[in-house]
Amino acid sequence: MAKTLVLAEKPSVGKELARVLGCRRGGEGCLEGERYIVTWALGHLVELAPPEAYDKAWEKWDLLTLPMLPEHMKTAVIKETGRQFRAVQALMRRGDVQELVIATDAGREGELVARWIMEKAGWNKPAKRLWISSQTDKAIRDGFSHLRPAGEYDDLFHSARARSEADWLVGLNVTRALTCKHGAQLSAGRVQTPTLALIVDREEEIRRFVPQEYFTVQAKCRGFTATWRDRNGQTRTFDRERAEHLCAALQGKHGVLSEVKRTLRQAPPPAAYDLTELQRDANRKYAYSAKETLSLMQSLYERHKLLTYPRTDSRYISDDVVSTLPERLKSVMADEYRDLARAILMKRPLQTRFLVDNARVTDHHAILPTEEQPELFRLSGPERNIYDLVVRRFLAVLLPPCEYEETRLTLTVGGETFTARGKIMKEPGWRAAYGRFLLEEDEEEEGEEREQSLPPLRQGDSVEVLSARVSTGKTAPPKRYTEATLLTAMEHPPTQGMDRAQGKILEETGGLGTPATRADIIEKLFSAFYIERRGRELVPTSKGRQVVELAPADLRSAQLTARWEKRLGDIARGLERESAFVSEMRGYASRLVGEVKTSDAVYSHDNVTREKCPDCGKFLLAVQGKRGKMLVCPDRECGYRRSVTRTTNARCPNCHKKMELRGEGEKQLFACVCGYRERLSDFKKRHAHSAAGKRDVQRFLQNQREEKGTSAMAEQLKKWLEQQEK
Q1: 650 CA to centre of own chain
Q2: pLDDT band, residue 441 (cuts 50/70/90)
Q3: Where is the catalytic site (predicted)?
Q4: pLDDT of 175-202, one tens digit each?
Q5: Radius of gyration, alpha carbons of the chain
Q6: Domain assignment present for 698
Q7: Which residues contact 32 (CB under 8 A, 6 or more apart)?
Q8: Do 582 and 513 share a structural domain?
Q9: What's the rounded Cα separation, in Å, for the pair 411 and 306?
Q10: Number of folded domains that form the chain
Q11: What are phi and psi of 356, to 5 degrees?
Q12: pLDDT tens per residue across span 265-302
């Protein structure tokens, strides 16, 4: 009997597809049923071949071998996942497998994952495409009943391949050129470098900023306080004498309310979430990194099936999704959402004017709850937080606008103008979805004027100034980026120096990177030691500042990404040929390498220690990693690194803050900023009979797993845990 092979992107997704399709018999890297065989990749199984696959001379990093410009790009099986590739290839070559269903993530990169595997494995039989936005049983069944010919997505694959090859040609060549030219581990890329430039430029603005003292004048009247404004409407003056003279002249004076303006206003609900907006809010409210939020979203999408496809850049839905909204509302009738969801459902027809916009939906619609009934107790704390954000936003966008009355007073005293404003809520509308949990950026107050409760007043009333005071402040520099504000800047990068057309393209193409890649770009800046975190703020290191100066000017600007994304979009729509774009990138990479080679710029290590690398003898560099201080070897080929201190999840028994783990071997100790110190051996004894303590250590190990240089300590804690289980 002929069978259909289904290729998923990850084992977790593959196993869910297999369950729905009735594939229960296990095999090598697959699950098999009567009609279907479900297999999976492990992310990418195939990638572009490394330079040495083309020319042995390219194996060595040397300026003389640059630029590297292969005429035809090759692919190679990733060594670490080679076993799974061979399993997939064997399934594709089975005689009873007559058709393939591409079930990788429905997007540009998902298409690339599948097509490269198919090409490398030699697939030449019919193929179809599964394109779904959620992993519920219903969505999977509907998707399999509406499979499309894979050929309809060829242009999307060509766009993905063009992007990958262009990044190889430009990124690898410029990275090698910078590293070889300056004898340091430096890298550059079309998205990474302009993103880093945003942080570096902001730091330079802060460094150059000179604060100025300013003054404001407030007049206290019966029932309200009014703020002085000059003829230009500004509340600040930099003239102390003027402010003090005005304050003295107000004492005991009477003024007239020259205007009392009441306006009924409406505030529409915020649009539904796309990934970037969700990452912003999660960082702002919970301090989650962009990568953490994406990981939590993937779990809610793949494992719990409670949310739709996360890697979307759309904040709207199309008409065909509207019919599913009642079921989605029923699914969220749990806990604190129950009453509001029921009230929305009962008011038919549903209010969808702020959610439906066919023209603004791309490959995937906005992030929504699925029709799956949630078992909230199964969610971890962070998963619950992300689910809460999405559900509240979903309910909010189905509610009417918030209505309030805004009152603005204009008081004239001795020819000077003072204003005050207040707000009275009429109908909360969408704000009912948030209540006291409303998440929004702190509103910038207009000058020093703040909202207040205003007494009933009429135009023409005489008002006595009971007292007046001068307030002093200093102008503030621009704020450093947090991950939330950096994501905004990446999505809407500054357009200074661009013409209007380029700025428009950058806006239309979604700025720097894509919702799916921005988190990884930020992580790369940390791992390359280009930026470090101070609290929530992102600060460039000396290495980060220097690499922005050393990189070719073209790579520092967001214009390059704007041009690329416009053309990649045209390739995806069949409006441009992939070969023409890649050919142009070869010439472009060659020009950038030439710029680096002829540059007179110099790179200097200003973080060199006097401790030598035990492997190659070079002096180690002191760097601040994402989870603590490290010593790293400057030699790219050596790659030695060692953790000096690590921020852990272990809590101080005195102040309950997270402690650092310092030292090596038997001398390792926990240290807290409050002054508390405890040896690792004593820590293990203290928690030896505590279940909560074991969980703390397990969480600590989980969080440290990805950090290089922690393996020795991790092994000790792992052995300790095993002993406790015996």
Answers
A1: 27
A2: very low
A3: 309
A4: 999 999 988 888 998 899 999 999 999 9
A5: 30
A6: yes
A7: 3, 23, 25, 26, 38
A8: yes
A9: 54
A10: 5
A11: -100, 125
A12: 999 999 999 999 999 999 999 999 999 999 999 999 98
Peptide bond into 349 cis (omega under 30): yes
Dist CA 131 CA 106 (whole Å): 5
Q: Check whether 73 has a pLDDT greater than 70.
A: yes
Indicate whether 69 pLDDT > 90: yes
Query: Do the domain assignments include residue 152?
Result: no
Quick: pLDDT tens for 325-355.
999 999 999 888 999 999 999 987 898 999 9
Catalytic residue among 36, 301, 309, 404: 309
**Residue 9 per-residue DSSP state:** S
CA distance 217 to 551: 49
24, 110: one domain = yes
Instruction: Specify the 3-state DSSP secondary structure of 666.
Output: helix
Strand, coil or helix: 349 = coil
- Whether 429 and 408 have beta carbons less than 8 Å apart is answered as no
At residue 572, does pLDDT exceed 80? yes
* Contact between 366 and 229 (Cβ < 8 Å): no
Q: What is the pLDDT of residue 694?
A: 52
Judged by phi (left if over 0) then psi (alpha if -120 to 50, else beta), residue 405 lies in beta
H helix intervals, 28-136: 82-92, 108-121
CB burial readout 469-502, b (16+ within 10 A) else e = ebeeeeeeeeebbbbbbbbbbbbebebeebeeeb
Residues of the domain holding 521? 164-207+480-598
| Tokens representing residue 700 in the block | 């600590």
Q: How many CB atoms lie within 10 A of CB 115?
A: 23
Q: Is 9 known as a binding-site position?
A: yes
Query: Residue 475 — pLDDT band, cuts 50, 70, 90?
Result: very high
Asked if 609 and 618 touch (Cβ cutoff 8 Å), the reply is no
Residues 235 and 297 in one domain: no
Query: Residues 325, 300, 284, CA angle at the centre, nearest 5°?
Result: 95
The length of the chain is: 726
Structure-token pair, residue 563:
């041009």
CB-based burial of residue 518 (10 Å sphere; 0-12 exposed, 13-18 middle, 19+ buried)?
buried
How far from 518 is each of 32, 81, 313, 622, CA to CA, in Å? 36, 25, 12, 27
Average pLDDT, the chain: 87
Q: Are 532 and 541 in contact (CB under 8 A)?
A: yes
d(CA 474, CA 80): 56
What pairing do the DSSP bridges indicate for beta strands 3-8 and 97-103? parallel
Same domain, 300 and 431: no
pLDDT tens digits, 236-251: 999 999 999 999 999 8
Give the angle 67-588-584 at the CA atoms, nearest 5°: 115
The two beta strands, 36-40 and 46-48, are unpaired
Domain C-terminal end among 358, 377, 397: 397
What CA–CA distance (Å, rounded) separates 265 from 668? 61
316 is catalytic: no
Cα–Cα distance between 171 and 272 in angstroms, integer? Answer: 35
Would you say 216 and 473 are in contact if contact means Cβ atoms under 8 Å apart?
A: yes
Q: Which residues pair with 619 in a beta bridge?
A: 612
- 575-594 pLDDT tens trace: 999 999 999 999 999 999 99
Q: Counting Cβ atoms within 10 Å, is residue 436 exposed (0-12), middle (13-18) or buried (19+)?
A: exposed
Three-class DSSP labels, 524-579: HHHHCCCEEEECCEEEECHHHHHHHHHCCHHHHCCHHHHHHHHHHHHHHCCCCCHH
Residues 7 and 59 in one domain: yes
Same domain, 141 and 7: yes
* pLDDT value at 709 more than 80: no
Residue 264: helix, strand or coil by DSSP?
Answer: strand
Same domain, residue pair 72 and 93:
yes
Q: How far apart are CA 166 and CA 152, in angstroms?
A: 23
- Is the distance from CB of 36 to CB of 122 less than 8 angstroms? no
Position of tokens 């309910």? 395
- CA 323/CA 119 separation, integer angstroms: 39
237/372 same-domain check: no
Question: Is 464 labeled as ligand-binding?
Answer: no
